[in-house]
Structure formats: structure tokens, C-alpha cells
Amino acid sequence: MPRVSIIMGVYNAAERMDEAIKSIINQTFTDWEFIICDDGSTDNTYYRLLEWSKIDKRIIPIKNETNKGLAATLNHCITYARGEYIARMDDDDYSYPHRLEKQVEFLDKNKEYAFCSSIALLYDGDITYAPQMNKKEKPEAKDFLFTSCFIHPATVFRAEELKKAGCYRVAKEITRTEDYDLFMRMYAMGMKGYNIQEPLLRYFVNLDAMKKKRKYRHRIDEAIVRYKGFKALGLLPKGLPYVFKPLIVGLIPKNILFMIKNKKYINR
Known about the structure:
- The protein is of the alpha/beta class.
- The chain has one domain: Spore Coat Polysaccharide Biosynthesis Protein SpsA, Chain A.
- Helices cover 38% and strands 21% of the residues.
């Protein structure tokens, strides 16, 4: 049995996923399996995954016949996972070589944590920026009020605890917040996470996507996720203003919102 099962969902990712896959193959920690689920792609993504599985037998390609979304796709991966730990990865990010080694060592030594993540360096496809996606080392429940306390693709879970939490919730409002929802549910069950204060992941920031304003229905969905999560964490009614945060942000003009995000993520 591999100690770590890495799970990744991909959709029409044939042209972008190679570097992410190579970054896992090049890990100093080698006792892993990499379960990659093609979520109903219309390009040759699954064929590329089959080619990768011939190069490295630890890569396990699976597929959804139709597009089901990230939450359901990750749950599909988990049904194949055999590892003591379950690590996340995204197809446009890059795991630094010592990532899994450091996270497995941390979880082995710190049994009180259900999962651990890390801070990350930002990458826009051309330049890796020194400013980091900083996250609090030991987040508390109240820290979820403003945003998620963990970087999802940099996270490693104890498989037993992740399954105890019911894995990822598949619901109408879970479109872009499957990680935020999961972390809050785990904390509500008394589990806690830790952020290693060292960048173990290079996180891709899509500047073109940032220029586009998110559909307002996604902001409504996030407000619903926040309300349910804050209620489970006992953060209401004080947390109500933060429930409405995505709805208010959605009213900001697109060009102003991009300037705010650009300044927040990448300090040129």
C-alpha cells in the first residue's frame, strides 16, 4: 500500500498538466500513487493520462463519462485511494520536490492535526513572484470568516479523517468553494489543520481570468456556503456581515475589482 494517494481532477488539460505531473514524479518522497480523474474532457486529456501511466506505473488514470465538477471528481478519486494520507494537486500548479516529504514528516510527528497545508509562491505563467500566499500557521475557527485558511492544492489530509468528514460535499452551491466548505466542516467536527510556513507549492494565478468578473450566481453560492459553514462553527450571528461579503464584492465594477486583486496577489 502506498503511504500517500495524490488526487487530481482534470478537464481539457492535455496542454497544461504535464508540468504538474512531473513535479509529483520528481518528489523526494516516493511512496505514493497519483490518481488523476478526467472529468469528461473533450480533448485528448485521457489519452495523455494513459501515456503517463505507461511512463510511471504509480499514475492511475480514471475518468468520468460526463463532466461532474471538481467535488464529485475528487470523491471519485478518493474511492480508488489506498494511502494513509490523501494529498491534493491541481493541473496548473507545481509541487516543489520536498513537498510530500515535509508534509508526511509533519503529520507523522503531529497526530493532533487532521491535515496540513503550506504557504505558496505565485506564478502567472511567466514569472514566479516573491510575494507569497501567506496563511496563518495555526488557524482557528474565527479565521474562516474572511476567507479559507488553507491553500487547497497544497493540502495533505489523513485519509481516515477526510472520510470521516464525508469527503467533498456535492451540492448545487458547491461550484467553486468545495475546499472552503470541507475545511469548515472538518473544523466543526473538532478537527484542525496546520500551515507549514514554507512555500511547498507554486500556485498559478490566471491574470486573464482575474480580469473577468465572476458570475453573480457564484457569489450567491459562496454566501450560502459561508452561512452553512459559519453556522456549524458557531460563528453566527456575529459572522453575518461576512456571509454577505461575496455579494457586496460582486457589485464592485470589474475594472476596479481587477486592480484590487492584482495588487493583492502580485506586487509588481
